[in-house]
Write a structure and sequence with these properties.
The chain contains no helices and 14 strands.
């Protein structure tokens, strides 16, 4: 399904959830996030935009120390653009999985600069979760948030 925006808006569409299965303590789990799309259809052509991503700690059970995996253990790699439109410079935040950055703080996922007309960019990021060896086995939940400005 293609992302659609109201004319004159800057919007982002991202998957509602990502499944990392039940992470195994002492391993690194990998998951595809799915397509993230930014549509900049503002009436006044803006020079560009920056998409960011952030995460909460992941918890299971009653969220004790061993039942919490810090957001910094979750790394994000935007990957390259899978589709673009408009005239601009399109720059991924982390072009490859080797460039993945921990989500202890918000991270730049994608940037558009020098836009001369409305733009659209889509990318398909990857998450890497380094599960601490002392973590309790279980189903963990957390929130991954994409935003654009």
């Amino acid at each position: 399904m293609a992302a659609q925006a109201e004319p004159g808006t800057l919007s982002i569409v991202a998957p509602a959830g990502v499944d990392l299965d039940a992470p195994v303590p002492g391993t690194t789990e990998t998951a595809a996030v799915g397509a993230v799309t930014v549509v900049d259809d503002r009436a006044e052509v803006a020079p560009g935009w920056i998409a960011t991503v952030s995460a909460t700690d992941l918890t299971t059970g009653s969220a004790t120390g061993a039942e919490t995996i810090p957001a910094a253990a979750l790394a994000y790699a935007s990957g390259p653009a899978t589709a673009t439109s408009g005239t601009a410079t399109f720059t991924p935040g982390q072009p490859t999985v080797d460039d993945a950055v921990g989500l202890g703080d918000p991270v730049e996922a994608f940037r558009v600069e020098d836009a001369t007309d409305p733009t659209t960019a889509t990318w398909s990021p990857t998450l890497l979760l380094s599960v601490p060896a002392a973590a309790v086995a279980g189903a963990y939940t957390g929130t991954l948030t994409h935003s654009v400005a």
